[in-house]
Write a structure and sequence with these properties.
alpha/beta; Nucleotidyltransferase, domain 5; 2 domains; 5-stranded mixed beta sheet; 13 strands
């Protein structure tokens, strides 16, 4: 049996998964970013390299390849570049560094692209050649597949729906601009929307979801507005790639029953009639913690 490693680098933690060729995660390790944030990124990468070796030794099998999903990951160059939600700025040659450390082919892409590849290989997108996967978490990531192939663009950064403008001159975004979709549809965005209603603060999206399910009108309206912002930008995205489906993944997506109705209504009200009633809106078919790991591993399968 061949073994691969899929790595999901997030804003707060990194998961290293040992994956079989059938797409089964055999084992995983988690590294917290906080413990490395004050030092150089190489110290963090050394911990990842040690984790890869630990899993390989534990199972007594050589690793066929390593795939990495990372924020602002560039597939063409194997770099993480100016990731706003990570402590290390600038450009970092992550794939080359780890490939040298582990003497094993290493490929890197954007974390949402990795999740999309995982969804295509093992999830609800198996039969779709044209779809958009959106990850809703610390930020808003997106991976766009057209004609069965991931869209990277000429520089490796195509498909960043989270950094399209939804409210001109609106909220500050971590990218340095104003009014990006991510500033409204993400963990931070959801909390800020609820606070904007003037009814106090919530500490997590799950808390707002619970309030909504208990009948809190402001909490319910928070999710309605979230769906409207998403629907508006997806109406634009449909004109670019004509997707068969838009698939949602991440913690906020678990509350899909609270924002899918307003999302669908806004999408259909604003999309060009060529695309009306043709786009499926659905949740990921993969376990919450698995999509990016499986997708990253699939990069080298």
């Amino acid at each position: 049996m061949k073994h691969y490693v899929g790595i999901d680098i997030g804003g707060t933690s990194t998961t290293i998964g040992l994956v079989s060729e059938e797409g089964i995660i055999l084992d995983r390790l988690v590294i917290l970013i906080e413990g490395f944030a004050s030092g150089p990124i190489e110290t963090f990468l050394d911990a990842i390299a040690n984790g890869i070796r630990e899993l390989s030794t534990k199972y007594g099998q050589p690793i066929e390849g390593v795939g990495i999903g990372a924020p602002n990951g560039n597939f063409y160059r194997g770099t993480i570049e100016y990731a706003p939600n990570m402590p290390w700025k600038d450009v970092h040659e992550v794939a080359a560094y780890l490939e040298k450390k582990n003497a094993c082919r290493t490929v890197l892409t954007n974390d949402a692209n990795a999740a999309a590849i995982g969804e295509k290989q093992f999830g609800v997108a198996k039969n779709f050649n044209d779809f958009i996967l959106i990850t809703l978490g610390t930020g808003l990531g997106s991976g766009i597949v057209s004609g069965g192939k991931m869209i990277y663009g000429h520089d490796g950064f195509a498909g960043e729906l989270g950094h399209s403008i939804v409210v001109p001159e609106g909220r500050d975004c971590t990218c340095g601009r104003k009014g990006c979709l991510e500033a409204y549809v993400s963990i931070r965005g959801l909390l800020e929307t609820y606070h904007d209603f003037g009814v106090g603060k919530a500490s997590t999206p799950q808390e707002i979801a619970m309030k909504a399910q208990l009948g809190d009108e402001y909490a319910k309206e928070t999710f309605v507005k979230t769906g409207e912002w998403l629907g508006l930008k997806l109406a634009d995205a449909a004109t670019y790639t004509s997707p068969e489906a838009v698939i949602f993944f991440g913690g906020i997506a678990q509350a899909s029953d609270l924002f899918f109705p307003s999302l669908k209504e806004t999408l259909e009200a604003n999309v060009h009639n060529l695309y009306r009633n043709k786009i499926q809106i659905m949740k990921s078919g993969l376990p919450l913690n698995d999509a990016a790991v499986l997708g990253s591993a699939a990069l080298v399968m």
